[in-house]
Design brief:
alpha/beta, TIM Barrel, nine-stranded mixed β-sheet, 11 helices, 34% helix, globular, disordered N terminus
């Protein structure tokens, strides 16, 4: 049976469930709820609320208070929206403020802007690079495969503008990370997309669409297991034809991270804060309407950890259907909120379990082939 190493078995000495000991506190800062796109699967209510500079600084202060209280050595800030490039000046000011605090307290700081890419300009790229920020851009396909999910408010597709923005970033020295959301609308175009991404040597992650209260009525976004599996295997075949020079273990199957053992699928409820434009703090970006506390709390993270309402992010060992699975410490049971929406409880396996089990061996195969391709010849 697989455990942490590909060749280690449960009978091997030292087998024990992985401990959850993260040194990183992750915080989403939703700098605005405004956006120039109207993506059908977006969880944001689009009520045109902006985060004020005072709220932004208060949010960062709150993040650092919790980081210091719980002994974190690293903070990761995710500047989100709406569309955060609409508030790039605020993002820059807040990140400089956070950087000063990080230097004062001896905490490492990482920052990333989560963008649709359409508003990217050469000046914006220069500013992002000067701040040491990373950029993640959402791209769900080429041409109509992207446009079916992500269009402007007037209905025009955004694919051409997003791909131009990606090439702009690359040509000016900023390598964006690409986030791909796979749904029933764009699955067929996935092989073409990963080929395009690999041609540019772009890091990317493949994520499954999750329905929520604002998108649940759009049934064509959902996919049957066989449809999802066929799309993923076709994409893997395209990746195999042009294997990248970076690891694939944490990017190819939704929430799964096959590079290291873990008992939780994400940091929600433990090492994770989501702060909306008004300064309210929630467990997960998919549940911002269900705030637990706000940035005036002495230790927002302690309140998040203690909250018994909302999403419950259980250890995989607490999920009855997962306990005997050989993949449990890489999958960790999948997104808890998606599981709850489909099965009505948190202590069970993901509704995508069949897909995951079919794809994990294929991911290991791709990684093995990749390692062979880039292995240094024996001297």
């Amino acid at each position: 049976m697989l455990t942490w190493g590909l060749l280690k078995t449960e009978a091997s000495p030292g087998f024990a469930p992985p401990k959850h000991e993260s040194n990183t506190l992750i915080a989403w800062l939703h700098t605005t709820d405004r956006c120039n796109l109207r993506c059908d699967y977006c969880y944001s209510p689009h009520i045109h609320v902006d985060m004020s500079p005072e709220t932004g600084r208060g949010a960062i202060d709150a993040v650092f208070r919790s980081a210091l209280a719980h002994g974190y050595s690293r903070i990761k800030l995710k500047y989100a929206g709406g569309e955060p490039l609409l508030r790039l000046a605020l993002v820059a000011a807040l990140h400089r403020y956070a950087d000063n605090l990080a230097r004062r307290y001896g905490i490492l700081l990482d920052g990333v802007i989560l963008s649709n890419g359409t508003l990217l300009t050469p000046d914006a790229v220069a500013l992002i690079r000067s701040l040491g920020l990373r950029l993640m851009i959402s791209l769900d396909g080429l041409g109509s495969f992207h446009d079916r999910n992500r269009s402007y408010t007037a209905g025009r597709g955004s694919a051409d503008d997003v791909t131009r923005a990606i090439d702009l970033a690359l040509n000016t020295g900023l390598v964006p990370e690409i986030s791909v959301t796979i749904s029933g609308r764009n699955a067929e175009g996935l092989p073409m997309l990963v080929t395009w991404l690999n041609e540019r040597n772009l890091p990317f992650s493949l994520n499954f669409y999750r329905d929520h209260d604002r998108s649940g009525s759009l049934t064509d976004l959902q996919m049957a297991d066989d449809q999802m599996l066929a799309a993923m295997l076709a994409a893997f075949k395209a990746i195999e034809a042009d294997l990248p020079n970076r690891s694939l273990l944490a990017s190819l199957v939704d929430r799964a991270n096959l590079s290291a053992p873990h008992a939780y699928p994400c940091a929600v409820g433990q090492d994770y804060l989501v702060i909306d434009p008004k300064g309210r703090v929630s467990k997960c970006q998919m549940q911002m309407d269900d705030a637990v506390t706000d940035i005036t709390a002495d230790d927002p993270l302690a309140q998040i950890r203690g909250a018994q309402t909302g999403i419950q992010n259980l250890s995989v060992d607490e999920k009855a259907e997962c306990r005997q699975c050989e993949w449990r410490y890489w999958c960790a049971g999948g997104c808890p909120l998606a599981t709850y929406r489909t099965k009505g409880c948190y202590n069970t396996s993901s509704s995508n379990c069949t897909i995951y089990k079919a794809l994990y061996p294929e991911v290991l195969k791709l990684e093995g082939l990749r390692l062979l391709k880039y292995a240094s010849p024996l001297q």
